[in-house]
């Protein structure tokens, strides 16, 4: 389990962002305001390559856009196919006072499976990083990735 696979999040001032990231934010805003605007037209209008827009579009957002009163996130766990694995994970999640919003377990292939959990951490003092680290410690969990969150 490589800790470098988990991506940390940072708050950063707008004035130190590279021009391509700022333009990506402007394009996202323009697309939100005008649903008839295509990505091709928007990147042309703001003089940014489509590849740069696609590189940053899912990784940058204004904090106020994502602020919520709840702490919800979705994680994907890569696990060995062991009987009772899902039950074991859910027991741990319950011990940590996390609420399960959704669960999906893939069909095992080559003795491996994934468990996708959407969790609400409102009733716990644990932070996202804590939850990821605790899940990594469960036997037969080989990797944990964050796939979405609200803050």
From TrEMBL:
<dbReference type="InterPro" id="IPR002912">
    <property type="entry name" value="ACT_dom"/>
</dbReference>
<dbReference type="InterPro" id="IPR045865">
    <property type="entry name" value="ACT-like_dom_sf"/>
</dbReference>
<comment type="similarity">
    <text>Belongs to the UPF0735 family.</text>
</comment>
<dbReference type="InterPro" id="IPR008310">
    <property type="entry name" value="UPF0735_ACT_dom-cont"/>
</dbReference>
<feature type="domain" description="ACT">
    <location>
        <begin position="74"/>
        <end position="149"/>
    </location>
</feature>
<protein>
    <recommendedName>
        <fullName>UPF0735 ACT domain-containing protein N9R04_04885</fullName>
    </recommendedName>
</protein>
């Amino acid at each position: 389990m490589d800790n470098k696979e988990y991506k940390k999040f940072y708050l950063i001032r707008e004035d130190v962002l590279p021009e391509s990231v700022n333009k990506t934010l402007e394009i996202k805003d323009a697309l939100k305001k005008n649903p008839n605007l295509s990505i091709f037209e928007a990147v042309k209008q703001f003089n940014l390559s489509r590849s740069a827009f696609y590189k940053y579009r899912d990784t940058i957002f204004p904090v106020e856009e994502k602020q919520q009163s709840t702490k919800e996130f979705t994680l994907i766990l890569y696990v060995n196919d062991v009987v009772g694995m899902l039950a074991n994970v859910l027991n741990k999640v319950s011990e940590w006072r996390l609420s399960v919003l959704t669960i999906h377990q893939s069909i095992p292939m080559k003795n491996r499976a994934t468990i996708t959990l959407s969790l609400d951490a409102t009733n716990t003092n644990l932070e996202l990083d804590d939850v990821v680290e605790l899940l990594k410690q469960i036997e037969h969990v080989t990797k944990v990735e964050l796939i979405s969150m609200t803050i």
